């Protein structure tokens, strides 16, 4: 059997370099002139034959993960507004659009120390399977424990702050920090459970009993728009300064999702099959990992790194322009 013409690394490097279009045909057109350059069907076969494997991401990410730091879990929707017969696409709520849209649900586990943003694991919401986002949340935490991750804290937003998820983090021997809704019921003084918004919470945090869970430390934070946020952690020794720093780390996953979409084309794959979509998404995440490693090493942002590739192509063209107006002959 002949060796495949296109490899995973070929496609990853194409995703890093291409400014806009991410398709097998465009990947073939962009290849350097060479007798053995892969054609578009080689990239198509690559996407359909590779095994979607989050473990391949971890193999590349593990060297960038150190003890401590924070593990952040959240989901994002890969917009597919015009998809009618595309695998993995379903109707789901989008925080970006503030409405239900057609898209692919991506759940990510990210490690960060406040500077590095290292995707370690991911799951795709498959309409054909019964797993929920909460199932993926707990499964990725269990896998992370098996890989000997030892984060200072696990961060997640209100949507994932349910009892089963909190207990799953505690069962792994880790601490969590999460926002909760203002109607979450706690017992601050052994007089009965009531909504956390109506309880006295000190500026440095207050230890309360969370209904169905146990003791947590609660914080009430004033927001810029005049509202309030409520945060809880099972680390009863956490102070407000530490909470503020760690809460800032949680924003890293939003930056990651934005970078993944803007610079790695994770949501632009032009294939219908579920397997091919899953392979493309996995390779796009590995492309982001390369951009992030370059950023940490050189200080060059993802945007600047992408722009430098395009700038070199523009420079090459300007050295010998080909689209010129020719003078018409006169008689």
TrEMBL record:
Molecular function in Gene Ontology: DNA binding; transposase activity
Lineage: superkingdom: Bacteria
SUPFAM superfamilies: Ribonuclease H-like (SSF53098)
Organism name: Gemmata obscuriglobus
Transposase IS4-like domain ranges (all copies): 131-287
Pfam families (UniProt xref): DDE_Tnp_1
The protein, known as: IS4/IS5 family transposase
GO BP annotation list: DNA transposition
TM ranges: none
InterPro entries: RNaseH-like_sf (IPR012337), Transposase_11 (IPR002559)
């Amino acid at each position: 059997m002949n060796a495949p013409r296109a490899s995973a690394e070929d496609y990853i490097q194409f995703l890093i370099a291409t400014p806009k279009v991410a398709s097998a045909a465009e990947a073939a057109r962009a290849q350097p002139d060479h007798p053995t350059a892969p054609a578009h069907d080689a990239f198509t076969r690559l996407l359909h034959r590779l095994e979607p494997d989050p473990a391949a991401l971890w193999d590349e990410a593990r060297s960038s993960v150190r003890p401590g730091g924070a593990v952040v879990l959240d989901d994002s929707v890969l917009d597919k507004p015009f998809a009618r017969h595309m695998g993995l696409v379903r109707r789901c709520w989008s925080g970006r659009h503030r409405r239900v849209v057609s898209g692919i649900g991506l759940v990510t586990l990210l490690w960060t120390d406040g500077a590095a943003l290292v995707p370690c694991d991911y799951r795709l919401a498959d309409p054909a399977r019964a797993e929920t986002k909460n199932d993926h949340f707990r499964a990725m935490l269990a896998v992370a424990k098996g890989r000997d991750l030892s984060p200072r804290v696990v961060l997640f937003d209100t949507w994932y702050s349910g009892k089963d998820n909190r207990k799953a983090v505690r069962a792994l021997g880790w601490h969590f920090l999460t926002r909760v809704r203002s109607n979450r019921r706690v017992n601050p003084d052994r007089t009965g459970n009531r909504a956390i918004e109506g309880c006295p919470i000190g500026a440095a945090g207050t230890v309360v009993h969370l209904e169905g869970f146990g003791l947590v430390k609660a914080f009430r934070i004033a927001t810029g728009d005049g509202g309030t946020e409520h945060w809880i952690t099972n680390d009863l020794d956490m102070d407000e300064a530490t909470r503020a720093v760690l809460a800032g780390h949680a924003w890293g996953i939003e930056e990651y999702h934005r970078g993944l979409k803007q610079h790695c084309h994770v949501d632009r794959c032009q294939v219908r099959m579920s397997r091919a979509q899953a392979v493309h998404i996995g390779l796009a995440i590995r492309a982001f990992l390369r951009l992030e490693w370059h950023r940490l090493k050189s200080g060059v942002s993802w945007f600047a790194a992408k722009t430098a590739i395009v700038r070199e192509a523009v420079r090459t063209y300007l050295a010998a322009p080909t689209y010129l107006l020719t003078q018409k002959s006169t008689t």
